[in-house]
Amino acid sequence: MSRKGGIISGGFQPLKAPDAPTIDSVSAGVLSADVTFSAPSNTGDGTIDSYVITAKQSDGTSASATASAAGTTSVSLTAGGTTTFAAQALSEYGPGQFSGFGNSTSVPTGQELYTWGINSVGQLGQDDIVGRSSPVQVGSLLTWEQVSAGSKHVASIKTDGTLWTWGEGLYGRLGHNNETDLSSPVQVGALNTWEQVSAGDSITASIKTDGTLWAWGFNGSGSIGDGTTVTKSSPVQVGALTTWLQVSTGYNHITAIKTDGSLWAWGNNGSGRLGINTNQTVDVSSPVQVGALYTWAQVSANDLHTAAVKTDGTLWTWGEGANGRLGHNNEIDRSSPVQVGSLTNWSQVATGREHTIAIKTDGTLWAWGEGGSGRLGNSSQIDKSSPIQVGALTNWSQVDGGELFTAAVKTDGTLWAFGSGIWGPLGQNNVANASSPVQVGSLTTWSQVSTGTTFTAAIQQTFT
Question: So what's the pLDDT on residue 464?
Fold first, then answer.
């Protein structure tokens, strides 16, 4: 039975309930928000049992979520638009003070998928093979969560956990148990447990919510990782582990990070792209650990080289060094990871076919390698063998590299591209090159971009 009051000097007085918690930040998702809050400095006379986070939605309705401790909790919403949030602590002496609604944020109601560029085998998903030089929506659905563009195909996961692919079907890279080209999205199997996907050249790999890793497509170099060199046209599990966290596919090799921070690679080892410091003519048909460290945070693989960021913010590259793509101020191939400079403030890296792009924790964008067609974004076409900054802005949030071009999203939700415009992958409604970043349209709602060989796919948030 809860107590309502107590005897103190001077008579009976109600026991004090907690003060209001403090909402520190709100991060909006699709019809959801992650609310981070702190416990009240004065917890009152009792013990806090739980917290209630309440959202006042744009349509006048409310939604709420309960948390057992201060920290971050997710609130599921039923309306988009501008939403405000309040917090309250509950103790054995009843509800505490109400923080009052604040921390407003715009909540998207869905996410649309757009593509543009070459469309020779239906890789734009427009149900035809007609190229586009500006963004065109793929269907009318608002449920796209993550997208990955390969050389001639696309793989994308929806918010319901289903996986969809389209484009060139050669070698079974689409995962539909055949080699048929598809010009619109088709679901891979019937499962709804897919979490992250990466489309490479002739292979695709994806991680499920249970931490298992699956791959399919061309397997001549053992790139599927199932211990064979037999091509697979539907997903096959890579080993039996349930600890995979992130995967990235190259031309015919795959790299992946486990939940323990270890890095693994398999497939074609030409130019040392696997980073396992062995004979470069020897391929590997099952995962082999790259070094012995457990500090890897993010990895990106492309045709002949690989790059990765560690948890300490250092950046490492290996594989073919031609055109300076490894960033070591030379063109030497590396068969094991070598640090790029000595900085510890790298946050994300992406590999193009012959160049590399990375973002620092301060939001600056850097590029190096083959400079042809202006893909480095530094207003020239000169190769660079060490990182150079792209402009002077500090609001870049995500980047990806194609064959001859680069695309990146800023923190303000705008989308930018630079490099070769042939086939229209820059989204400028023309085929002109751009040697410095040019904005794709005028929208400020882009959340993720992925570059194929000469086409682009991107997800845009929608609001009502």
Answer: 79
